[in-house]
Amino acid sequence: MKNAPELVCPAGTPAAMRTAVEAGADAVYCGFQNATNARNFPGLNFTPDEMEASVAGAHAAGTKVLLAVNTYPPAGKFDLWKDAVDLGARLGINAFIVADIGVADYIARTYPDIRLHLSVQAAASSPEAIRYYCREFGVKRVVLPRILTVPEIKQIKTEIPCEIETFIFGNHGLMVEGRCSLTNYVTGLSTNMDGVCSPAAEVQYLRDDDGSTTTKLAEFTIDCFSCTDTAGYPTICKGRYRAPHRDDSYYAFEEPISLNLSALLPDLIAAGVDAFKIEGRQRSRAYVRKVVAAFRTAVDDVMADRPPMLADLLALTEGHKQTEGAFKTKTWR
Amino acid sequence: MTQFAVRDTKAPSGFFANLPAPVLPLFLLQPLLRRVVRRIARENPGMFNRLGPHRSATYLIDPTNMPFRLLLRPDPENLMLRAVSRRSAPAFDAKIAGKFLDLLRLMDADEDGDALFFSRELEVTGNTEAVVCLRNALDDVDGSIAERVAGMFGAPGRASLSALRRAGDRAHEKSKDSL
């Protein structure tokens, strides 16, 4: 008999957490209002008081709370991460999501009874790397980078002693996560240490007279959308650039497109995936409600051997485009 | 904080284009808007924390198919929400522009702001961080702000909101069909 995978859903605010719980999340993931998590966006995330009330509310509904402390502490600033972990443990969170080995070590030694999940920010994609984290820190689950095919995931599952979580919707995320320094190069702030990719304070949208919109990050122009173009997030990896070998500007790294694995759910379950993650703590309650409800229905259908009902989520995707990315084939682009 | 001056004075278009321009003179609208913003602020004091330093920012909310725009300063100590004519050029820190019904769906937590941005139906200019803070502050308010505002005006208010929502749903379905 198949084990039902856990549906792990984003919660950027207390209201979003309540929405995810009501929409059928098995677990929610969230973070504090500081650099300890990889969505340290202005006005987002939880104060300690909000976290306490939200954890209690989620637990009352039978939903687990996973705390993201998945950034990398710079030298001399470890106390911020230690305080976040201590507070999370005191509030009764069900698991920590970590990337840094120092943070993992602190949790493993101080709170050995609380589960450790290895964040995608650790970019552990080989059985050897994953086994290291399991052996040294007792990691119970790995969130795999979005660069593996379903057969590769199935093979990895046979070679590691922990659960596997895969993204099923949201950011396509092909950079080697936890290592990307593009934002740092342009703004001086680090995605991996400050928890913010393309800080909003450095983003400017300039409307041109012809109705097109130019996107700038700090002093760099990263894209220009004509009136008829769809848009994406203002990240360097999704910008269009000119290069000597091209006549036109083009997506040199990634393009604005979202991952949507709804059609691959049966294959992923058959491959032994233990949990499905929906990306998007920065998104609204409307996004959370629609996406969580759609995947709740689809997962339940698959588990009941019914053909999955796949809601149309295209309107919520970046650039109004979706892909199964590397999960389907490594030549997706 | 850099302030911008309004340059565009384009005429409204779309759903409301055929409505007679302001049925209500703006000076009659101002006390209603003051009442609305004070009520929302009183009922949701926690939302201001998410605005951080941007609570003193001036936001220009531009329902592009309405005959007026709105100026908002979400500072609990110095609240302001007032309608301004399309002919005026108020200074602002950040501007959010979109069709009236899309903005209503955002307030209703029925539409995702990023999705509207991706489809170019929502336009943001000026201080992007101020816009992100306002979006997150409003999104953390449980229930529907639009519903609470409508409730302030009793049965006629609620009936008007229902009619607007139906119009919004029809417009939404139509735009999905055309994708």
Give an account of the 3D structure.
The complex is a heterodimer of chains A (333) and B (179). Chain A is α/β, with parallel strands linked by helices and 333 residues long. Chain A has ten helices and 15 strands. Chain A has helices at 14-23, 48-60, 78-91, 101-110, 127-137, 150-157, 182-187, 265-270, 285-303, 325-328; strands spanning 6-10, 27-30, 64-69, 95-98, 115-118, 141-143, 163-171, 203-207, 213-217, 220-225, 240-241, 250-251, 258-260, 275-278, 322-323. The longest helix of chain A has 19 residues, at 285-303. The model of chain B has no long low-confidence stretch (mean pLDDT 84). Chain B has a single domain (4-143), classed as Nonspecific Lipid-transfer Protein, Chain A. The longest helix of chain B has 24 residues, at 154-177. Chain B has 179 residues and is α+β, with helices and mostly antiparallel strands. At the A-B interface, helix 1, strand 8 and helix 9 of A face helix 3, strand 7 and helix 4 of B.
Q: What characteristics describe this protein?
A:
heterodimer; A: 2 domains; 3-stranded antiparallel β-sheet; 30% helix; 19% strand; B: alpha+beta; 5-stranded mixed β-sheet; two-stranded antiparallel ribbon; 7 strands; 42% helix
Map the helices and strands.
The complex is a heterodimer of chains A (333) and B (179).
Chain A: E1 6-10, H1 14-23, E2 27-30, H2 48-60, E3 64-69, H3 78-91, E4 95-98, H4 101-110, E5 115-118, H5 127-137, E6 141-143, H6 150-157, E7 163-171, H7 182-187, E8 203-207, E9 213-217, E10 220-225, E11 240-241, E12 250-251, E13 258-260, H8 265-270, E14 275-278, H9 285-303, E15 322-323, H10 325-328
Parallel strand pairs in A: 1-2, 1-14, 2-3, 3-4, 4-5, 5-6, 6-7, 7-14, 13-15
Antiparallel strand pairs in A: 7-13, 8-9, 9-10, 11-12
Helix pairs in contact in A: 1-2, 1-9
Chain B: E1 4-5, H1 26-43, E2 59-63, E3 68-73, E4 80-85, E5 91-92, E6 94-98, H2 100-107, H3 113-118, E7 122-126, H4 128-139, H5 145-151, H6 154-177
Parallel strand pairs in B: 2-6
Antiparallel strand pairs in B: 1-5, 2-3, 3-4, 6-7
Helix pairs in contact in B: 2-6, 5-6
